[in-house]
Each structure stands twice: as C-alpha cells, then as structure tokens.
Amino acid sequence: MGRKNVKDGEGPGIQERLWVWMKGVNQMDLRVVYKEERGERIARRFIARLAPSPRHRKAKRRDPNLRKEILGRTPRAETDRTSLSETDRLTDVSARARSGAWDAMGERRIGVAMDFSASSKKALRWAAHNFLRKGDILVLLHIEHRGRDEAKHVLWSQSGSPLIPLEELRDTAVRQRYDIPEDAEVFDMLDTVEREKELAVVLKLYWGDPREKVCEAVGELQLDSLVMGSRGLGQIQRILLGSVTNYVLSNASCPVTVVKAKQWLGLP
Amino acid sequence: METEGRRILVAVDEGDESVHALRWCLANFAAPGDTVVLLYVRPPPPTYSLLDASAPLGYLFAEEATAAIDGYSREVAESVVQKARKLCALYSREYGRANGGMKVEVKVSVGDARSVICEMVDELGADVLVMGSHGYGLFKRALLGSVSDYCVRNANRPVLIVKS
C-alpha cells in the first residue's frame, strides 16, 4: 500500500478508507502517523476525514488552513483562547509537530520517559527545574507494555501514537481513549512548566517493550536528550539500575540523564 | 528554586569522549551563573612494599622509576586539565558570556576513577555529574568494566552520560 501519490490536503482514497475500515477504527477523529512499508521514515502525515463527496474534497485540496481547521475541531479548541500569543505559539508548534514538519524545527527536544512511577515523576521534576529552557519542546514518552493486541493499538503498534499536545491531554475523554493514567501530580507539573518556561509539551505513546521503544523514540523523534528515572530492582535499589535504564544507557543515541529514585535533589 | 548557580561536576580523562561530553555540556546544559567543576582522576602510582611478599619477583620499582612514573602522570594531568580549561574559555567567549558568567574550578585526584568520582560528587557538593562514555560493547564492558556505569549506579546525584 504505497503512499507515494498522496498529496497534502487530499482526503482519503478508496484504499485508505478500506484500510481504516479493516482496522476497525473510528474515522471521524483519526489522526495517524505511519511509516512507509519498508519502515524507512515517516512518510507523511495523514489526516483521515470524511469528505462528503469528491467535489468537496477537491475544493479543500490545497487549502493552506487545512490543518489548522482540522486541529480546531478538537474538543479543547472550542473554548476561548484569551492569551493569544503564547497559546498560539504553542499550538503552532504542536500543529507543526504533527503536520510532519518535525524535522525542520530548530528547538531543542528533550524527552522524558514517563511511566507514572515515582522515579519518573522525580525525573520530570528534575528536568523541569534544571534542564528545560525557554522555547524547548518537552516530549513525554509513555510506553505501555500490555494491551498490545487490542484493535486500536494494532494501528499504532508500529510507530506509536501521534504526538498529543498538552491541551488535548487536559481533556478526560482524550486521556481515556489513549489509556493514560489519571495523575494529577504529573499534569500539574506539566502545566506549571509549560506556563513558566513557555515550552511546548507533547506526549507520545508507544506499545511494546519499553527498552526498545525508548531507544526507537530517540531516533525517530530525533531527541536532543533524554531524562529518565531508575527504579532498581527490589531491595537493592542503591546498587542496581533498572533494566530499562540500563539498556537505554547503553543503546540510546543521545545524551541520557539518569535520576535515581532515592536521591535527594534539593528541589522544592 | 533558582536554576542558576548549580555546580556541575564534569569528569574528564585523557580520551576524546570526555572532551565531547564537556563540549556538549557547555553548549547545551551549562547556563550563565553555573559553576563547572572539572575533575580529573589520575591512576595511583604503582607502589610495592619491600616487606610485602606478594610483590612480583623482579618488578620492585626503584625509587627513581616510581618518581618518574609519578611525574609523568602529573604531566598528563596537567595537559588534560589545561585542555579542558581552554575549552571552557573558548565557550565563554564564543557564547558572548563574560568570564564571570560561568565559573570553572579544577580538581585533580588520585585513585580508582569510579569510586573517586562518586566520592567527589558528595565532597564537592555537585548538583549534577556529567561524563562521557567509552561506548564499549557488551563484552568489553564485562571485561574492562565501565566507569560511567558504576557512577550512574553509585553517585548520589543525577548523572548525565554523553555518548559520542
């Protein structure tokens, strides 16, 4: 199923629709990022929307505001955006991120591996206080080990979910759809750091083996650096490093910061 | 909590990886107002006690030899430290920060690199430890042991490993 002839702004063709139908996914709010058959690179951003007829589809074809319009349909966007410049810039970054211009963006991309455990929250706090700077992009990586075989996840098992910006994550429906645990502490931290340092925060979910997926994410998203916690195994936490951390340290292609669970960091 | 005024401990050695780590740290991590503490750990001079029967036969070092080895090791330390200092100065100038913007301290220590680095993190009151990694494969790591692995496990502060 080649994607070579799909241009930006075109609606789905018959083949795409069949494929989406076979995967059993709801077409109305599907945003998919997928790789080419040979897995070489992310082919393009593919937004599936139902166009009522070919005539309508043609009219929308080269619309420059197409992506903004589609993203504007997310539940969050209906609310009034009072502080224009900041949120505009943030949604612009997220919009650009999800529109496939990820490679061209010049901001620093810092990844934080988040499995909602205490040590990864600590890692996020450390990153927020010590590492992140104004204008960065914070990419949260959440990797679910289970649930790989559910229908919706098959679609994303190869390349992970699309990049979900923070404003969408604030909506409970979105969180439930992606099975993100309800964790007030983490989302508070993210809100604070986004506000104070004017970052763009996105979340990307993967399903599969955490070690491999983190290393894959580093390459795929071209992260400049990674911050992760480390649990250690059982009682011997001081000496051992978690197996995921160990693997990622040896195999990641970017600088990795390890924040251990029991360290005293002097953070507020 | 201020993000300025952190103490960043950068472990340097004779190899290129630590130079790369230092460079990355200066470019991406250090901010004006931070203190960069360069730590070089030189290997301990070989000493064999005359009274110790475990000294290998025929390899008791004469005093001059020990002194020479020690002198050489100090020279290596000097050159490593100078190189690192120059790099810091280069970055201060390049990024237009005043020299007082980012302070540089140097510490040379003797002993086994792994344990000394972990001790120094506490002793020098560092907030982060930055090191390069030799990038050994699995087998080499098992044989030679990895200083960066040891430090990540045993240091009491977050450790940033920069790979080349």
Features:
heterodimer, A: 268 residues, two-stranded antiparallel ribbon, 11 helices, 38% helix, globular, B: alpha/beta, 5 strands
Please give a structural write-up.
The complex is a heterodimer of chains A (about 270) and B (about 160). Chain A has helices at about 15-25, 55-60, 65-70, 85-100, 120-130, 150-155, 165-170, 170-175, 185-195, 210-220, 245-250; strands spanning about 30-35, 40-45, 110-115, 135-145, 165, 200-205, 225-230, 255-260. With about 270 residues, chain A is an alpha/beta fold. In chain A, strands 5-6-4-3-7-8 form a 6-stranded mixed β-sheet, sandwiched between helices. In chain A, β1 and β2 form a beta hairpin. Chain A is globular and about 55 Å long. Chain B has helices at about 15-30, 65-95, 115-125, 140-145, 145-155, and strands spanning about 5-10, 35-40, 105-110, 130, 160. A 5-stranded parallel β-sheet of chain B has the order 3-2-1-4-5, sandwiched between helices. Classes of the chains: A alpha/beta (about 270), B alpha/beta (about 160). The interface between A and B is medium-sized, with 31 and 26 residues.
SSE blueprint:
The complex is a heterodimer of chains A (268) and B (164).
Chain A: H1 14-23, E1 31-35, E2 42-47, H2 54-59, H3 66-71, H4 84-98, E3 109-113, H5 118-131, E4 137-144, H6 151-156, E5 164-165, H7 166-169, H8 172-177, H9 184-197, E6 200-207, H10 210-221, E7 225-230, H11 243-251, E8 256-260
Parallel strand pairs in A: 3-4, 3-7, 4-6, 7-8
Antiparallel strand pairs in A: 1-2, 5-6
Helix pairs in contact in A: 5-9, 10-11
Chain B: E1 7-12, H1 16-29, E2 35-42, H2 63-94, E3 103-110, H3 113-123, E4 128-132, H4 138-144, H5 147-154, E5 159-162
